[in-house]
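Model: Ready when you are.
Researcher: Fold this.
Model:
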Amino acid sequence: MTKVQMAPENVEGLSTSRRNLMRFAALTGAASAATLISTTSSSSPAHASDATSNVFPPELTYPTVNGPSLALWGSSSFEGAQADQGVPAGFNATIEALLHSYLEAPVLNFGRGGETSTQINARRGTPESMYKLVFPQDTIPASGSIEVTLASDSNVAWGGSTLAAGYVGGVPGVLVPASKDTFIFTRQVDGEAIYAPATTPASWFHSYQEMISRSSYHIIQIGRNNMNETEQIRKDTEHAFALAPKRTLVMGHFRSKSDSKDSDRAKQVSGYNAWAAEKYGELFVNPETFLRETTQESWLRYGALSGSGVWSSDTDRKAYDEGKIPPSLFSTDGLHLNGWGYIALAQMLYYKVTGLGWF
């Protein structure tokens, strides 16, 4: 089996072990750090007995898990959108890379930009959000690709951002969008044609990401792309949490750069965060509070965020007075954080998961 080598570089002679992370955060910023993540292939068994390594394409393979690991479930923020902005060239400020460096443990990045809470849950493997496929002639072909539709009782909608690895009837395949309301299922290993009648479990798509993360701890941030669907996001959060209720941390949401405290998105964000905080207690973490309040504390502002200039400008102070997150932590699109914002979130998540005793 091929193991993934993930070797973070030392920072000016400092190890990034748990023992030294406090010193690391206090004494250094991103300008003095470099993180190297190399992902080659996955050798973790997936479908009970018939999964093999190197079945899926490189973008859908993950670190080998042979001890405690952390799985990140979400959309573009976990995927790392705009993480290269603001920080020194070459510095990997994705949450995945930073947490791997901090924790010295495998981090499985299951972020996929553009997906709704239900689409994320389809990859998370919740029974309520499965891709129930309909194959032409109820048959998975012996090789190649085929256009499929969703059964009428599928609770997950078509999405233009779908990229999912999984198994149907023991056959490994990758699911991507085709034309509106249809997908392309590409078989990854040639073999015999398989009978998979619609409306039966034989045609259900079982997420490979869920399979390889069953021993992991999980962080879920779902619903950022459908914040207006309040009840759906809450149901999806409950379903995802229920899969591993003692090993799941719910991460709340944060508003965009231009959202005032009275905007619709701000109200949706604060409503969700308040609901999740009450429901999940210590298994909830609020990124908006961390980005607005904790980043002002000296240990973080002059430590890991020392090169960001956060809170040094009148613009940041004015934004705070208006109930916003400091603009210096946002990317140019105003929707995603920049590298410094991701560093702040990674610090938040590190202290939360270690505080829970997970690592």
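Researcher: Now this one.
Model:
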Amino acid sequence: MSVSAARLFVKRHSELKALADTLPVDIEGYGQRATKDFVDKFDNLGSEVDNKSKNSS
């Protein structure tokens, strides 16, 4: 994963976490799960990009 993509991910993750932290108690679990899902999906995408980059070199 490129450095700029990693920085963007960190920024977006921080923004999502901040939003999730402001949710009312009765729905904060949804926000936390959504943030975790985002992190997991982005990690998978980063791995796919890295693998394709290695295979095309």
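Researcher: Key takeaway?
Model: The mean pLDDT is 83.
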